[in-house]
Design brief:
By secondary structure, the protein is of the alpha/beta class. It folds into 2 domains: 3-116 and 184-206, no CATH class; 118-171 and 224-247, no CATH class. It is 51% helix and 9% strand. It has 13 helices and 5 strands. It has helices at 3-24, 48-59, 73-77, 101-104, 117-131, 134-143, 148-152, 154-164, 168-171, 173-178, 195-206, 226-235, 237-247, and strands at 38-41, 64-67, 90-93, 109-114, 188-191. The protein has a 5-stranded parallel sheet. Helix 8 (154-164) runs parallel beside helix 12.
């Protein structure tokens, strides 16, 4: 996908999000949206950008609605309705499952993408270090980045962060987002490590052609080392077991 196309799609997405904000103000708490076919639970750093553009190219921007930090993800996580236009087929974003979702979106099937937990956490830490903003980065800056060794060695920093528990919910996000659901509750569980093959599988389920795009890859020059992988897998054993269980056939 060329840069111009991405910019145009981003501009259209912003326009649609403004419409959501306008309608949300007058939304009745008992509203339901039977036209929504899918709730897509996007756990951070699980190929969300690539999936988003694939869905937009395949279905059209107007049929995908987003719920992120700035657009009602918290409301959905709390079980509150978020307005969707008549064309919306997929509601996608950083929201956790709530028992009200099947009531508000009675015809929506569920989809989620999973990624090796240690690699997902590594990517998340590198994202915070790259953007240099937000609460996680400010905490890292205060607690660790004044130490020259930690500031210059991401693997050393990662080990410290793993054992601190400050980011337990961010690193054990599957337990938080899936909120007690079983994999049988989902019509689609994608594995990020097999993105191309999984997109083709999703194509068959949606009955629509989806381009295979690979965007927003981790730009870190360093790779997660084996010792940190072992430490992470031990410290977040439940998260890792959940991941392996859910991706198994």
């Amino acid at each position: 996908m060329n840069r111009l196309t991405q910019l145009l799609m981003t501009k259209h997405r912003s326009y649609l999000e403004k419409k959501v904000i306008k309608h949300q103000c007058n939304l009745d708490s008992g509203s339901v949206f039977p036209q929504v076919n899918w709730l897509s639970y996007h756990i951070p750093k699980t190929a969300g950008t690539s999936l988003r553009f694939s869905l937009e190219k395949g279905l059209g921007v107007a049929r995908i609605q987003y719920a992120y930090h700035h657009s009602f993800a918290k409301a959905l996580s709390n079980g509150e309705p978020v307005w969707c236009n008549d064309k919306t087929q997929i509601l996608h974003g950083h929201f956790a499952y709530h028992d009200n979702h099947p009531i508000i979106y009675p015809n929506a099937r569920k989809m989620v993408w999973l990624r090796d937990p240690s690699q997902r956490a590594w990517s998340l830490l590198n994202h915070w270090l790259r953007v240099k903003s937000g609460a996680p980065y400010k905490w890292l800056e205060q607690e660790y980045l004044t130490n020259s060794k930690l500031a210059s060695d991401t693997n050393l920093l990662f080990e410290e962060v793993i054992l601190n528990n400050r980011f337990k919910n961010q690193f054990a996000a599957y337990e938080v987002y899936l909120n007690g659901l079983d994999k049988t509750d989902f019509a689609f569980v994608g594995q990020c490590e097999n993105f191309s093959a999984e997109i083709q599988r999703l194509e068959r389920i949606l009955s629509v052609k989806l381009p295979i795009l690979s965007l927003n890859k981790n730009q870190s020059k360093h790779q997660l080392n084996d010792s940190n992988r072992i430490i992470f897998d031990k410290h977040f054993q439940d998260e890792c077991e959940l991941y392996h269980d859910w991706i198994s056939s």
